[in-house]
Amino acid sequence: LVVEKLKKLHSNLQHFSLKEVSSPPTTFVKSRGGVMPKSVTRNSKEDVVSMTGFLGTEGSNVDVDLLVLMTHIQSACKHIAAVLASPTELQASLLDSSFSYAAERDAPKPLDIIANNIMKAALRSSGKVAAIASEEEDAAIWFGEGPFVVVFDPLDGSRNIDASIPTGTIFGIYRKVPEADQLPLPEKATVNVMQRGERLVAAGYALYSSATVMCISVGSGLYGFTLDHSIGEFVYSHHDIRIPERGQIYSVNDARYFDWPSGLQRYIDNIRQGKSQTRKKYSARYICSLVADLHRTILYGGLAMNPRSHLRLVYEANPLSYLVEQGGGKGTDGKRRILEINPIKLHQRLPLFLGSMADIAELVSYGDVQQLENPGYEV
Ligand SMILES: O=P(O)(O)OC[C@H]1O[C@](O)(COP(=O)(O)O)[C@@H](O)[C@@H]1O
User: Fold this and answer.
1) pTM of the model
2) Residues in contact with ligand 1 (CB, 6 Å cut-off)
3) Most buried among 79, 129, 252, 379, by the most CB within 10 A?
4) Which leading EC class covers this enzyme (predicted)?
5) Domain residue spans of the chain
6) Could you tell me which CATH number the domain at 249-364 has?
7) What class is the 2-238 domain?
8) Among the options 153, 233, 293, 325, which is catalytic?
9) Whose CA is closest to atom 12 on ligand 1?
10) Which residues have C-beta within 8 Å of that of residue 344, sequence separation ≥ 6?
11) Which of 111, 303, 306 for mutating ligand 1's site (highest number of atoms within 8 Å of CB)?
């Protein structure tokens, strides 16, 4: 069945130079982001490498199961990108009105629900997923047999959606926990989705913006793919992404300045005035859409942060910290490395600081950077 699926999958990619897929390279080069095939690093302008083609040659960490799963996630993200770019009437016709949510969670927008349904359907039909947890679901869901567990935020930044501002999908993939096999449901599902971030085997985000870009890692570096609408494929566009060691941009909702602790206030005061370690004046950029703010930070360097306990450990902080670390950066809650935190609650929220190694180290040296009081904000 798997072989048939892959054949079908590859026949859909006939537009591409499939050199990398049909004859896997035997030599690998050690790149800063890990081991990657020589043929992928050296592709000529004429060669277009699809994400599936790339993953098929990425080395031993991508087995057929993960390849199939990643293909389904790509399909879901293409689908979400198409829905986001559609007129509102069409979007409304896709809405499942039976959806409900627990009172303690933010009310979802219609597109949150649609994106959630698309992701769930894609993951279920992959046949590779035992359990999922979504930011839009109250509890973990057990799908059945499959080697993987997927956690995701189907549409982050959706409060901006009516203004066509960029949004994103975030996902993290774990292996199923065999020790939990004997547990009754729903504990089995919960234990599987509440793994520490350092156990992630892959993660990624899709950014829906002027281009739809997917950045992924399967444990050996960070790579980006851009959706080529003329052929309907994510093509390899950002090679071995390395987050600059130091940036000159900070990203935070600084209307909250007067609610911040003094350490964070002093840090931001200093980088604004050129009084930080580099003596350079930093610029501010804040889209208020985490994937978009992080994507810019990954490419240009600096910091993307939310000092209040707002972002979720399981769906946002862990997958994004994993990606940032794979790109040579750092993810912290201001005190602890995100990937080492043991989740204690499925929808647990925490402060999050992601970005360039030297910038995060300097920020953390101010000590008092977490906004512990969260008065609640209307917008
Ligand atoms: O209101 P704040 O603190 O600026 O938070 C904004 C952040 O919240 C988010 O919108 C996520 O929150 P939601 O999951 O409630 O949409 C991020 O995309 C964004 O970075």
Assistant:
1) 0.88
2) 106, 156-159, 253, 288-290, 306, 308, 310, 377
3) 129
4) hydrolase
5) 2-238, 249-364
6) 3.40.190.80
7) alpha beta
8) 153
9) 157
10) none
11) 306
